Please model this.
Amino acid sequence: MQSFSQFRKSMQKAQGLTKVFYYDELEERLEQELSKLEEKEKQKQNQKRYRDEVTYQNLKLQTEKWLQEPEQERFEHEEEYKDDEPKMKM
Model:
């Protein structure tokens, strides 16, 4: 066993390697990289949820504001849009 470790060290020096990468170390690195990617994906999903929630809240506030407008203003607002609608001729 001693001669094998010496052989391995001499091969490392000959190839310019300073460390042998063992399977367990490679597997651990792979798991770390995968966990980093999963964390980034979770952050993206959380940002999307937050953005959707803010959009929903803004729409809700706009709707509430529109409902609180006095009746006359609402009527005038609707009349403005009626003029913009195309009319069908028969």
